[in-house]
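Friendly challenge for the regulars: who can give me the structure tokens for this chain first? No prize, just bragging rights.
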Amino acid sequence: MRFRSSVIAFMALTLVSASSQDLHISRFDLDGRQEGFHIKFDSGRVFGWRNTADSPGVALGRMVTQNGESIGLYPLRNLPGAFFANAWDIAATPDGGAVIAAIVGYGPEMKDPTDKNRPPLKNMLLKFASNGKFISAIETGAKTHTERVVTDNKGNIYSLQDSGIDGAYPMMVEYSSSGSLVKGFMSSDSQRFFSPSSNQIVEGGDAIGPESRIWIREDRLSV
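First reply, four minutes later:
Bragging rights claimed.
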């Protein structure tokens, strides 16, 4: 996902200073799988998230502690009825844990996303403690899903949203550390965020353009 034509927004908020960057590696063995992981550096720590976990014994994410211990994150062990989870991003939490932005499927995954028989999907923010223990799942609604996520020093979560629906929706949503909805802002109907050449706001990243990011630095939430 990216903004076209270097569309950038800066939101001045009272937040902790932090920064992150990420890269993709083609191979990172975990739980006997060969699927590549995305590796992200956030708040001085290393995280990994995999596109899909399709069984309780497959970690959707991984985090490395300050002492070098590698901890797997297994949401399907704690989501009754879930068949798979697709991760979009991961972020550090101030207590040493992590939050994963994911779409969780409650039925076998379909190869064709337009299949009318596809299983029910839920858009979620999945929280984990510093020891990898599952804490909670925050459902973020059926009409949008989280593409990028970041937290502040109080544990509040900021999610960059995307949607295929018609009409306006908040592109940024804030949740409290307990998972309660605080507010949505940066409306998709604002002309500030439109591409000059189309009516698209955010779109899939590709090899010729950078993906969008959200980060917190010098008390600013930046997109």
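The CA atoms of residues 28 and 36 lie 6 Å apart. The first strand starts at residue 10 and ends at 12. Your move, everyone else.
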